[in-house]
Amino acid sequence: MSKDLNILSFPLEILLKIRPYLNYSSMCNLLLVSRCWRDVWEDPVFWSKFLLRPRCFGRDTDLETILNTNRFSTIEVLRLDFIDLNDWEVLKKKSNKRSLEIGGVHQMIDEEDFACELLHWESVSLSEGFDGNSTCGYDDAFDYVETEQPITAGQMAALFQHITDESEMKCLEISGCDLRNPDFDAFANCSKLEEIQLDLCELNSDQMASFFKKCAERTKLKKFNLGFALNFEHHGFHKLHHVDPTLFASGINNIEKVTLHSFGGAHRQMEELFKTISKESKIKEITLRQRGCLAGVDPDVLAIGINKLEKVDISNLNLEKEQLEKIFQQILIKSNLKKLDIRFNSNFRHIDNYQKVLEAAKRKITTFLHT
Hints:
Layout: H1 2-8, H2 12-18, H3 24-31, H4 35-41, E1 51-52, H5 63-67, E2 77-80, H6 85-93, E3 99-102, H7 111-118, E4 123-127, H8 153-162, E5 171-175, E6 195-199, H9 205-217, E7 223-226, H10 245-252, E8 257-261, H11 267-279, E9 285-289, H12 299-308, E10 311-313, H13 321-333, E11 339-341, H14 354-364, E12 367-369
Parallel strand pairs: 1-2, 2-3, 3-4, 4-5, 5-6, 6-7, 7-8, 8-9, 9-10, 10-11, 11-12
Helix pairs in contact: 7-8, 9-10, 10-11, 11-12, 12-13, 13-14
C-alpha cells in the first residue's frame, strides 16, 4: 500500500506525462494492480485520447453501455465500423463530439439527419470499411475492406450540401469512395472546412474545377491532401490536367498546407502554380508525390516559388539538373525554406559544385534531406 501511495502521490501533470507511453492493454493492467490504483487510473482524463473501437468489446456490449462507462465518458476519438439505428441515437446524445470514424451506416438513417449530426463533430472520417487486429489505443492499425452497407450516395450528397461557414466540422477525411456521382456536385462546399483529406477517392474534372474556384474566391481551408486515386478507368490518376491551370493555381494558392498525389500529366498546372507562388502565396508547405510532375517547368520560376515556401517535399520527382541548380542558387540569394526534402533525385549529385552547394544548403536550411 505504501508503494501505491508513493507512486500515486505524483501530481496529475506528471501522470499525464506518463500516460502517452502506455497503450490500451497497459492501462487496463494498471486497473488490476490494486483498488487504489484503479481509483486513480479510472479517471476519464487518462482515457480521453484513446481511439475507442466498440466492436472490440464483443457483440453483446452496446455502444451506450460503453460510453456510459466512467473511463470512456470523455472519449475524443470514436471509430465505428458500422452504425445501426440504435448506435445512431446514442451518437446524437453524445456531448463530446470531437472525432468520429465511420466504416458504414444503416441505410434507413435519414439523409438530412445524417448530415446535420456529422456536422456537429469537429473531425469526421468516412471510409468503405475498417478491419484490424488490435483493440483500442492510438496505435491501432486498420486496413481497407468492403462493408455490407457503406454510406449511401444520398447520405454523402446531403453531407456536402449542408456544409456551411457555420458548421462545427473542421476536418473531413474520405477514403475508398468514388465521388464522381453527379449528386456530389456540392463537394465544393468542402472549401468551407479547415482540412480536407481524400485517399483512394476520385473526383471528376468539373467537381475539381468547382472546388478550386471556391478556394480561389474564399476558403477557410488550411490543409488539403489529395491522396492516391482509385484505380478506375483513369489508371489511378486524378484528372488535374483537365482543370484550367490558372483556376487550379489560384485555388491551391489560398491553402497553407498542400499535398498532391497521383496527378499524372498536369505539367501546365504545375508551371502555373509555381508562377503564382513566386508572386504571392498563402502556401507554407507543399508535398508533391508524382514522379516527373515538374518536368518542363521553368527552372527560374520553380526556384523562386520553392524558396518562397517554408517546407517543401519534392523527393523522388526526377528533377532536371538545371532545375536543381537554380533552386540552390536561389537558396543562397534569398529563401524562406526551413525544411527541404529532395531525396531520390539522382541529378542532384551532378549539379555544378555539388559539394559546396551541399554544405551551403546545410547551413541555410534547418532540415535538409538529400540522401
